[in-house]
Structure to design on (311 residues):
């Protein structure tokens, strides 16, 4: 399985790009200011669904794609999975939205993100054997968590009002899946928490859990750097899925849960399952005649991270 590994980091007012595919490597630098300005516009356009920005949005994607992807076009022609290794400073940069051959990367490849330097598993075998699912009805009005609970043979489902943060931590010691659908609260410095009744689920709590897969259906928690640091440092959670922008309550978020876990039960591959789900969402909302900004707001938000596991 040819994996294209792209490491991106800020270095002396540039974006350093290191790409490797099998035994071939390439390194180059791009001026940072213009890159960050364009990615900031893309993120804000998706976050606030600024449909009037469509022209400059598309121009920014095309420009970034040319700067970042054109130098590694030969790598892209051979790859069938892309791993982006990023620093916290560029966590809001939507690298998998860049286009290759006039099509977004997330619609062409399974995509994995990492925040540390290690080799991801290219042939995963993730089996959901046990699970804890927690749902705030205002975030999951269509009951996606309860429906998934009914499909899993060994799982516990809790309405959010019936569980505390301490109980969530206690119940997630050595399990396959923790899924929470609740309100995320992110600050401008990309740190935040998830509301559990009058409590807050914080990064310190995530240091105490042990799950194969954590899935947060919670706005912007995919760019919560404190969560990412906790998972990376503790090495007790292998995969993390969450939206990088504010996501729907129900609608596309319900479909993402359904499509992702349906595919995961068949393939055991988190990256392949999110690839499948996002392609299916993109097709569904495109056929509804929505603008490209609205289609991407509904189909693109969720990001998959993989973490190096403790031996």
């Amino acid at each position: 399985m040819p994996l294209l590994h792209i490491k991106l980091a800020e270095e002396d007012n540039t974006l350093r790009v290191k790409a490797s595919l099998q035994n071939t490597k390439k390194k180059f630098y791009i001026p940072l200011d213009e890159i960050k300005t364009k990615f900031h516009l893309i993120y804000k356009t998706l976050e606030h669904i600024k449909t009037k920005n469509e022209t400059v949005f598309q121009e920014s994607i095309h420009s970034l794609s040319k700067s970042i992807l054109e130098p590694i076009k030969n790598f892209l022609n051979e790859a069938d999975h892309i791993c982006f290794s990023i620093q916290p400073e560029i966590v809001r940069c939507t690298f998998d939205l860049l286009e290759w051959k006039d099509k977004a990367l997330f619609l062409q490849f399974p995509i994995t993100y990492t925040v540390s330097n290690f080799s991801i598993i290219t042939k995963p075998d993730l089996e959901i054997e046990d699970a804890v699912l927690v749902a705030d009805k205002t975030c999951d009005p269509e009951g996606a968590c309860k429906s998934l609970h009914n499909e899993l043979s060994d799982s516990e489902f809790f309405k959010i009002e019936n569980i505390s943060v301490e109980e969530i931590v206690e119940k997630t010691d050595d399990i396959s899946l923790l899924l929470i659908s609740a309100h995320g609260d992110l600050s401008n410095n990309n740190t935040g928490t998830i509301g559990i009744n009058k409590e807050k689920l914080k990064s310190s709590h995530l240091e105490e859990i042990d799950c194969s897969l954590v899935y947060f259906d919670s706005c912007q928690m995919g760019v919560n750097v404190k969560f990412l640091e906790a998972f990376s440092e503790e090495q007790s959670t292998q995969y993390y899925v969450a939206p990088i922008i504010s996501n729907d309550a129900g609608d596309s978020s319900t479909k993402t849960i359904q499509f992702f876990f349906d595919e995961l039960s068949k393939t055991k591959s988190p990256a392949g399952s999110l690839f499948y789900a996002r392609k299916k969402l993109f097709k569904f909302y495109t056929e509804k005649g929505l603008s490209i900004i609205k289609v991407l707001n509904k189909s693109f938000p969720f990001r998959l991270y993989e973490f190096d596991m403790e031996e």
The mean pLDDT is 97. The chain has ten helices and 16 strands. The first helix runs from residue 32 to 47. Residues 135 and 159 are 5 Å apart (CA to CA).
